[in-house]
Design brief:
The chain contains no helices and six strands. By secondary structure, the protein is mainly β. It has one domain. The two termini are 44 Å apart.
């Protein structure tokens, strides 16, 4: 008898930050990524669902150029990016034994930059 249930739920949360500093240039990077995948299993083998993610990135570059001991030029470049993606997926699952199942997953994502 086929079971109908919420069969797949995944959440990924990533935060990263880095600073790269040398003599005349400093790079700062901050990023945040969140993604989730939810599926509904409508037979013993087939699942349909939705995959979505959003990410924010900020990159700041500071360039310091000392022309003379008195004159210093500082240039700051800041770049912010937000990305969003969403799309359906289909999964076929085959039982290996009572505990384990193998699956093939296929999906299409649409990206909004």
């Amino acid at each position: 008898m086929p079971r109908k249930a919420l069969s797949w739920f995944r959440v990924v949360l990533v935060f990263n930050a880095a600073t790269d500093d040398d003599f005349s240039t400093e790079n700062k990077f901050n990023g945040f990524h969140f993604s989730t995948k939810v599926g509904y299993q409508f037979t013993d083998n087939w699942t349909l669902g939705l995959d979505a993610s959003i990410s924010f990135k900020k990159n700041e570059t500071t360039i310091i150029n000392q022309i003379t001991p008195i004159i210093t030029v500082v240039a700051v470049n800041e770049n912010k990016t937000t990305n969003f993606s969403i799309g359906p997926f289909a999964r076929y699952t085959m039982p290996i034994n009572e505990t384990f199942r193998a699956y093939a997953d296929m999906g299409v994502k649409f990206y909004f930059l």
